[in-house]
Amino acid sequence: MKDRIMQAFIEEIHDSGMKFTMDDLSKRLGISKRTLYEHFSSKVEVLETIIDQTLQEADEKTRQIVRDEQLSLIEKITGVMTVLPNHYELYDLKILDQMKRYFPEQWAKIDAALKDDWDVLRMLIEQGIEEGLIVAKSPALIMKLIVDATNSILDQRFYMNNHINLDEALSSIVEILLYGLVSREKRES
Predict the structure, then answer these.
(1) CA dist list (Å): 153 to 68, 166, 176, 179
(2) Using CA atoms, how far apart are residues 54 and 61, in angstroms rounded to an integer?
(3) Please, which residues have CB within 8 angstroms of residue 139's CB and are 6 or more apart in sequence?
(4) Taking the mean position of all CA atoms in its chain, how far away is CA 12?
(5) Is the pLDDT of residue 87 over 70?
(6) Helix (H, G, I), strand (E, B), or coil: what is residue 133?
(7) What is the phi/psi pair of residue 163, to 5°?
(8) How far apart are the first and last CA of the chain?
(9) For 163, which DSSP code?
């Protein structure tokens, strides 16, 4: 039931913005407010649960990728760069802007993760530089480019308007960052 409530919460955000009530949420779910409150005490609790769950899922997916001995270093870098947690729909510029206004503590947690939680990837990039797989450029600059480019998926309207799903967008961003804009055929000739 909690997963259903969290999904309905995200749907309500997309339909109504952050100003909806627990009453609106219970109506969307077709359950009583009492039943809703048996699972979550407030909108803030639902939001925090979604945020914590998405951050934990992303961290766990990242750990699994790094631990996978079958993957090459480049595959690990690619995998870490393309991790998308469940409920990634919450990570939208419009929603984050509203969250910043109405739920600043929860927004700060997401903002910090989007900007600062890239230590594992930095370690993989530095290893790639040491092994000669990645160009010997400033790791700080490389990380800035990666973070800014991958965070561009927060502009979900752009991708929807251009009929690009977020998985496809993220994969394309990573491919361009790792291999450039020149086609493989042209690079090899």
Answers:
(1) 26, 7, 14, 19
(2) 10
(3) 122, 125, 126, 129
(4) 19
(5) yes
(6) coil
(7) 55, 45
(8) 57
(9) T
Cα(165)–Cα(25) distance, integer angstroms = 27
pLDDT at 27: 95
Round to whole Å and give the CA distance between 169 and 134: 22
Q: Are 28 and 6 in contact (CB under 8 A)?
A: no
> Inter-axis angle of helices 93-102 and 2-16, to 10 degrees?
100
d(CA 130, CA 127): 5
CB atoms closer than 10 angstroms to residue 47: 25
Burial of 151 by CB count in 10 Å (0-12 exposed, 13-18 middle, 19+ buried)? middle
DSSP state of 162: T
Structure tokens at 17: 């913005």
pTM: 0.84
The model's pLDDT over 38-61, given as tens digits with 9 standing for 90+, comes to: 999 999 999 999 999 999 998 999
Cα(33)–Cα(27) distance, integer angstroms: 8
